[in-house]
Design brief:
alpha/beta, nine-stranded mixed β-sheet, 10 helices, 11 strands, about 40% helix, globular
Length: about 290
């Protein structure tokens, strides 16, 4: 499978029209159609369904699109890193971040780092720890800022000093919003959204000595943004970190800390024994100094 053909495939998938894609790629429509047909023959599957005006992807086509995007992103990253070996330190550092207090150190750190290394640019990706680790494993991210608890035995790891507080996101007109803090007993009979990550759920159960079966679970969330909308409409409450909640300024919701108070920390991780470009090496060294872990 050639990279050129993958690029052809992605362009058609994005445009949903072979004629438009052919114009963008500066090839003839028959040439593009032949390349796609040969790709389908090579893989032994149908990638497209043709309609009157648009074409859509089949399930194998959707999978190929996702994998092709990852492959081409990685190829582009490799090319940039190789070019950056000559001359002043430059290139792109790709950073995956969770919604946590650790991300609050990034603006001040990147300001200082960018002044020192102005040729370096940044690619930011937001997700939970599982997604970020997956992208690090695939080489799509250089560094991850993850919220604990998280399994990091396979990674080079730097624990950061910043802490974040657990609490409840509640509708402002709800009974729990009238409390200064919320206990686990308060949560037994209310519809509750939990973070999706298993490690977090297990930690919450250990903290309060309460099995999840004792709670009325409304659902789970990946990032707090969508859950915030459900809380705002009075459908549920959500267990969340204070820093992640503070990103969404919605007047109809509020944060109330847990009692007893519970905190979590963050870690900076990268793939162990993976060669890094000079920009990433400098980034790791200087953020270690910046965060007081020297």
């Amino acid at each position: 499978m050639e990279l050129r053909v993958l690029k052809y495939f992605l362009t058609v998938a994005q445009e949903e029209n072979i004629s438009h894609a052919a114009e963008l790629l500066h090839v003839t429509q028959p040439t593009l159609s032949r390349q796609l047909a040969e790709l389908e023959d090579e893989l032994g599957v149908k990638l497209f369904l043709c309609g009157n005006r648009h074409i859509t992807l089949t399930e194998p086509g959707i999978l190929l699109r996702r994998r092709a995007e990852e492959v081409l992103t990685l190829i582009d990253k490799i090319e940039h890193e190789i070019r950056a070996q000559d001359g002043p330190i430059g290139g792109t550092i790709s950073i995956g971040t969770a919604e946590s207090a650790a991300t609050e150190i990034l603006p001040s750190f990147l300001r200082a780092f960018s002044q020192k290394y102005p040729r370096v640019s940044y690619e930011l990706f937001t997700g939970n720890a599982d997604i970020i680790k997956e992208r690090i494993d695939k080489g799509l991210l250089d560094i991850g800022l993850l919220t604990e608890p998280v399994e990091v035995s396979r990674y080079a790891c730097l624990r950061l000093q910043e802490k974040d507080r657990w609490g409840i996101l509640a509708p402002t007109d709800s009974p729990l919003a009238q409390k200064s803090a919320v206990t686990m007993e308060d949560l037994k009979d209310v519809p509750l959204m939990l973070p999706r990550r298993r490690e977090v759920q297990e930690n919450l159960s250990k903290w309060f000595g309460l099995n999840q079966e004792a709670l009325k679970i409304f659902g789970v969330y990946n990032l707090i943004g969508n859950a915030t909308q459900l809380v705002a409409h009075g459908l549920c409450y959500a267990l969340a970190l204070e820093c992640s909640v503070s990103r969404y300024e919605i007047a109809s919701v509020c944060f109330r800390p847990l009692s007893p108070e519970q905190y979590t920390t963050s870690v900076l991780v990268r793939k162990r024994h993976q060669p890094s470009n000079e920009a990433v090496k400098r980034f790791i060294h200087e953020i270690t100094m910046f965060s007081g872990n020297s």
